[in-house]
Amino acid sequence: MLRKLLLSFAEQNLLRKLLLSFAAQNALREHWLSFAQQNLLRKLLLSFAEQNLLRKLLLSFAEQNCFESC
Question: Could you tell me the pTM of the whole model?
Answer without folding.
Answer: 0.49
